[in-house]
Amino acid sequence: MVPWMNASLVYHAGALGDFITTLPAMAAWRRLHPAERIVLFGKSLHAELAPQGLFDEVWESGNAEFAPMFGVGLDAGSEPATRFAAFQSALLFSSSSSQLPANLANLGVGGIVRQDPLPGERVPIIDYHLSLFPGLSLAEKDRQPIVRRTPGLLAVPANTVALHPGSGDRRKNWPVARFQELAALLEEAGSVVRWIIGPAEETSALPRGAHVWRNSHLSSLAAALSECRLFVGNDSGITHLAAAAGCPTVALFGVSDPAVWLPRGLAVRLVQTPGALEELPTETVLSTCCGFLRP
Question: How many CB atoms are located within 10 Å of the residue 106 CB?
């Protein structure tokens, strides 16, 4: 059993960028449930980005012990069922085909709020999530994701520009060769380039001698990005992270719709091509970068 009274569940098991875009809505949920103990049912890897006090505990949604919660015919007397039955409310970012909302309702969990992960119209994804709370007064800062930062684990020289050449979909990627051209031009102009590489970019051919931040903890990477002079990346979770960390961000969009997915931050500039990203000239991206980098 959950060893407390007045507990609330928040479920999100999507990708990194999707998680970051839900952070303002999760913060709104915390405002509406200030006295409750809130459990994030999702990915602990992403939970490290949650601001202090947003969640009291994290349950890894991918653990085998929780698999029955997503199946038909849940045994209400089973161990996972008794744990979830103790929640008084739940915020679920899940599709209508998911069995989780029905199972929670059958266990007696009240106050269930569910939202499809993707909007049905062209609205900024953060505002779509916040539409769950029409009666809540929200300032502009409340519509900006805030991520936790663990400083000092990655060295950030002065004038650092961070480049992230990947994403979860190759169709959204500007060619690595163009990133290499951009890196060379930035270095010629006096910038220090750091490459961000995760599991999806392990096969990327980087320049000889490239300085790489590889598979870094997300909160440490957020802290490093907050110290960078500029970030350049595709439509990816790391680009959302850079913007949320307060780093000036150049976001490259091709097939993605920026009306929905453009990261939100203090200084974000969109570079978009109506065709494939292969057609986006290096000079166009460099020009946008220089708008940030000029003294």
Answer: 13
Q: Is domain 160-293 given the CATH code 3.40.50.2000 in the classification?
A: yes
Kind plus residue range of the DSSP H or E element containing 253: strand 249-253
Helix (H, G, I), strand (E, B) or coil at 218: helix
Look-up of token digits 């939100």: 264
CA distances from 86 to 7, 26, 79, 167 (A): 7, 20, 12, 38
Asked if the domains at 7-143 and 160-293 fall in one CATH topology, the answer is: yes
Name the helix (H) or strand (E) containing 153.
Answer: none
CA distances from 109 to 30, 38, 103 (A): 18, 14, 9
Which stretches of the chain drop beneath a pLDDT of 70? 1-5, 201-204
Please return the burial class of 272, using the count of CB atoms within 10 Å of its CB with bins 0-12, 13-18 and 19+: middle
Asked if residue 38 lies in contact with residue 119, where contact means CB atoms within 8 angstroms, the answer is no
* pLDDT, tens digit, 9 for 90 and up, residues 122-140: 999 999 999 999 999 999 9
Looking at residue 205, what is its pLDDT? 72
**What is the domain partition of the chain in residue ranges?**
7-143, 160-293
Predicted local distance difference test score (pLDDT) of residue 202: 61
The SS3 assignment for 127 reads helix
**In this structure, what are the phi and psi dihedrals at residue 209, rounded to the nearest 5 degrees?**
80, 10
Residue 20's contacts (CB-CB under 8 Å, 6 or more residues apart) are 49, 145, 147, 237, 240, 241, 244
Q: Chain centroid to CA 93: how far? A: 14
In CATH terms, the superfamily for domain 7-143 is: Glycogen Phosphorylase B; (3.40.50.2000)
- Which letter does DSSP use for residue 137 in this model? -
Residues whose CB falls within 8 Å of the CB of residue 272, separated by 6 or more in sequence, listed in order: 252, 253, 254, 258
Residue 4's pLDDT is: 57
Q: Is the dihedral of CA 84, 89, 93, 95 positive or negative?
A: positive
Residue 51 has which token pair? 């601001």
